[in-house]
Amino acid sequence: MIPSLVSILLRRGSLVPFIQILPPSGGESLLPAACPICDGARTTVRFNWRLAAETPGEFNKYTRTLLEKKSLKSGFLFECPTCGQKWHLDSVREIMTVIPRDKVALVEKWDSAPSFLAPRLFEKAKAIGATAAHRNSLDQDYAEVPCRVLTHQGETIDKCLLSFRKGPPLENYGNSIRLAQEIADIHPSDYALPREVRTASSRSEETRPGRAWTRVESARGAAFNLNWTVNLFDWKGVLGKDIRLPARKAENKPRRLPVIREPMEAITFFIADFNEKTPGLFPLR
Ligand SMILES: [Zn+2]
Q: What's the pTM?
């Protein structure tokens, strides 16, 4: 393990749960050309390309062998000549991320056309209001709007996040990642937290590793801790719309409260391009 590489990854990416570090290797790979996938380091899904290029040995071989195929809408597509695995390098040529095989078609679709909301829908998203990237997040060119979506296919989906970002959709959240072009209409969702609650959670402080709480309460007085940024809330019949920031500061004696994180598995993501218009979704800025 190379401390500089690891420390940079941890510092810059501590909020990104799918970052994993190259495990210690048993020695030089015999493969003349390799990526971490076919080299046996299958748990590596992201690494710092720039640092790897500057680091002799173990990491450097990946930067010597992965081949650049083309520019994408944002960033660059790379491919392993040995196993065919596709990789995405970000636009500043720093972070290399594996493209899961089941996401290759989605990334191609994302790359083939701009993803944006029609002006009428953009205004509706603005009325709901966007949540900014978490203050500690690697990528600040990011906004998300919780809502209910009607798709062109006629589906109504209650727990959606419009996700405005520059990079392609590479997250492993199952199959619930779609593109903004599929949206016919958007509405407020009962599961969405009020904007001021979401904003507070996006500014929470990491008080210990993995913990960045925002204390909130329901209209009936139940208290919760949101962990990191939370947009959608559905807990034992309490919905996001019922949640607010506490009127008074919490009493000194700490109570053990339910800790609520963003319910990623329950969310359908609709990806839109982060562009010069996106900051307009933050009405209070
Ligand atoms: Zn490979």
A: 0.84
